[in-house]
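Thread: quick sanity check before group meeting

JM: Hey all, I'm pulling together slides for Thursday and realized we never actually wrote out the predicted structure for the chain we discussed last week. Dropping the sequence here so it's in one place. If anyone has concerns about the input, flag it before I start.
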Amino acid sequence: MTEILEQKKEGTWGVSQVWNESLLEREERPVAPRDRIWASELGKSKVDIYLKLKGEKQTNPPNARSLRKFEAGNIWEWIVKIILQRAGILQDAQRWTGYQYPGLLQVSGKLDFVAGGKPDYERAMKEVEAIGLPEIFTRAGKRIIKYLQEKYLDGLDTRIIEVKSVSSFMFEAMEKTGKSSQNHRLQLFHYLKAENMERGLIVYVCKDDCRMMEFPVFNPSLVEDEYKAEIEAITGYYQRNEMPPLEKAIVYDKDIEKFSKNWHVAYSGYLTKLYGLKDQMEFDEKYAPIAEKWNRVLARIREGKEMTENNKGVIAEIEKAGFNITELTAK
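JM (edit): ok, ran it. Output follows.
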């Protein structure tokens, strides 16, 4: 039986190995000090950003899985680009932008799309049909065009669109809270500020089931306070040659009222250097059980249950980590 299977194996051909290897072929940026922040870094770990600005080589660069996930995101971005293009509303794509407040580090980044204008809707319908995309995208594209034609017959205002593909877990978390990721919000605001434009959209695509959700960002708006505060903080550490404090491994999410693993640590490019952990798996194995344990005790307190000696020990752990248990459980 083994011999027959080996014969079949030798007599077949495939492309999976070449495909998988090609996903890992990426041009690496040379590691060197820089005096500008990438827009995509805003809202991420300040200690990681600081080390990158200083030219510190990462101890935990993106692994093969991370690189493949990045390329999967590029595929979704390309699909949205094609739909916008064929709908006749794509004005520009992948434009480099830069903005700098006086005395602060410059922020640079490459926006996804600028879209708007007055399309030829009849031609757009034909264009979408002619692309040859899978039926789901053709159907969605035609419905988008029909919707725009009915609601915006005189054309669309110009706006910047950022496309992000996320897991169903993250998609549903944002859907529940009604909030976009701060990292993505700040990134889009940078493009609006740099281009002096009034509005933009973060478009989220769920990689698991193709659902789509969008959040608007405006300029001016309160997002600028977040944006400028991030740049001021990073600039301060950079100019003082002072490394920012390490991130907490577990954080408390006010929106869902639970503890969770800190993704700033889990995905840190300096996980080994800063936190002494080999990889994300080791981080998860160490801190996921702790977050779950803390959440169980929070639930017991909120339900008014009597605290066991073990529960009291967990409460001491939570407070030692810098959290106020009274504030977290206040009704």
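AS: nice. Strands lie at 36-38, 90-93, 96-99, 106-110, 113-117, 156-166, 199-206, 212-218, 250-253, 258-261. The chain has a mean pLDDT of 90.
JM: adding both to the slides.
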